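Let us practice reading a record.
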Amino acid sequence: MKPQYILPVIILFLVASCTPDPSYRVLEYYSFHFTGNEGNRLLAGESKDIEVTYSIITNTNAPVDSVRADFEVVTGGGTVTQESAYVTSGETVSAKWQLGSESFRQELKISFYDLGGNYLTYLGQMAYGFRDNEWDGISEEPDYMITDLVADTVKNFTLMISAGNLYRQGEKYFLWDKVDDVIWEEDECRTIEIDSEGAIYVSTWEGEVYKSTDHGEKWSECTKPYPDRNEYIYNYVSNDNDVWVFAHGNPIKRSKDGGITWTVISGLEEAGFGDVYRLNNGKLLFHGSNCCSLYISDDDGLTWTHIPTPGLSVELYVSEHDEIIIGTQLGGGELYLSTDYGETFTHVHHVGPGFSASTSNIFNRWKDYYYVIIPRTGIYKTYNLVNYEKYWSNTEARNLFIDHNGVLIVKVWDSDTVYYRYNTNQE
């Protein structure tokens, strides 16, 4: 988390004199600083305790005056329990600051005056008030470095990878706790996946794969897919719970036993990293990160047949009813639907700019709706994968994640901001 601008404030008052004058009391300095300032992320409407300690040091033992503290909500529309209070040296003045909902970033200002009404200095307090049904963007660690996320709506937890570290979502959707008790130490995380039974798989920048079967509490090391490779790999869990791994310049590998053994998948060497789906008829469908690399296998991946696609296909999604959606780059970006296992495709939507290989998590489902992130456009919402409505216009939206409570989390292109949106009307 980036440091706040709250610091002790020191003001010097020096009085020069050739000879001592007992009527003068020389003040060395005033000091004001916040105490007990824990946490600056709250829900809009929640209250935050504000405590400020005041002290003064002089070169005499004479009594010192108290000062007046004026509290003022600068932005956010919140309230504070008291507007003004007096505090003597060595004591603390406190108030409760209730955050408003007029803005996400909110500020409180405390101005200090001596008993003659002379202004001394001020302290500023900043807090984030996360609001319902709003896009609130934050540019602090660890959120803004997010690269991957998994969520389990049954066990009610969400895990995030940020800057190579693993984090668990706290009691509120915008709070994250770093997972330190993991076995990979300096072997930083690259991708994270979860299967339908709750097993979690993490790939690393050193070419390892780790597995957890207890919601990320404990981890075990899988057999290394590429024994001689000490560079990053991607992992992917297909809807039949098989684990797939991809590494540049190496064959695709698959594990059907939870990472104990790995087999080479031939026939997809030119496809790139990809998405894999087990269709209801038992066949496997694959689309790589390279253009037009849609393949189908009817012998559990031993051989693959290329499926021609309209446009220049780069994205694949398959619904639970075997509805196949592909995203293309031709004509500025199009969505096509197939309901006959790729025999024919029907154009369903023009999405503006073409899809980008650096965009991930294109299709996200929450309950009965799909949220589709379109690079350089924003997010669309669809109920049936045929009719799409614009949900959020944001040309910088890059990656979309959804946590176990249905909170939308969007990473933007500039890599400095991540947006949260909690919808009270969960759909």
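A brief commentary: The domain at 9-130 is CATH 2.60.40.2410 (Immunoglobulin-like).
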